[in-house]
Amino acid sequence: MKKVFFLSFLSSLLMISCSLEGSEENNLMKDSSEGSINKSIISKNQAIGDFKKALADANNPTLIKEEIENNSGSQGFSSSRKKILLEPAKTVLLSTGMTTEKINGLDDDAIISQAFIAISNQ
After folding, report:
1. From CA 51, how far away is CA 57, in angstroms rounded?
2. CA distances for 34 relative to 4, 20, 92, 102, angstroms
3. 50 compared with 24, residue with greater pLDDT
C-alpha cells in the first residue's frame, strides 16, 4: 500500500510540475509578444513624429519663398522639400506595414501622399 501511495504521490507531483511549467512558458511568450507590440506602436508613433518634424522643416519660409520664385506652374513639393520629406515618409509607410518592395515601386510624390494618408488615419 505504501508503494501505491508513494507512486501516486510522485505521479501527481510530476503532473503539477508539468502544468506549472507550461503556464510559465505561456506567460513568458505573452510578455514577449506584448513587448513587441509596444515596440511597434512606439516605432510607429516615432515615425509619425519624425515625419511631422520633417514637414515643419519643409515648410520653412525660405524654402517656400524659393519654391515660389522658381515655380514653373508645377504643383506639389519642390525637389528640396521632397528630399526633406522622403525618408521620414518611407519610415511612416514601413511602420504601417507596407513592404520595402511596394514602397520602392512608388514615385516620390506617391510615397509622400501615402504618408499623409497614414498619419491622417492615426
Report:
1. 10
2. 45, 21, 21, 28
3. 50
Give dist(CA 19, CA 24) in Å, integer: 9
User: Which long-range contacts link 71-80 to residues 24+ away (Cβ below 8 Å)?
Assistant: 76/109, 77/109, 77/112
Domain membership of residue 38 as a residue range? 2-120
- With beta carbons less than 8 A apart as the criterion, state whether 58 and 84 touch: yes
CA distance 83 to 68: 17
More confident of the two residues 105 and 3: 105
pLDDT of 34-69, one tens digit each? 555 445 555 888 999 999 999 999 888 887 787 777
Contact between 42 and 95 (Cβ < 8 Å) = no
65, 87 contact by CB (below 8 A): no
Tally of structural domains, the chain: 1
∠ CA 88-57-101, nearest 5°, is 15
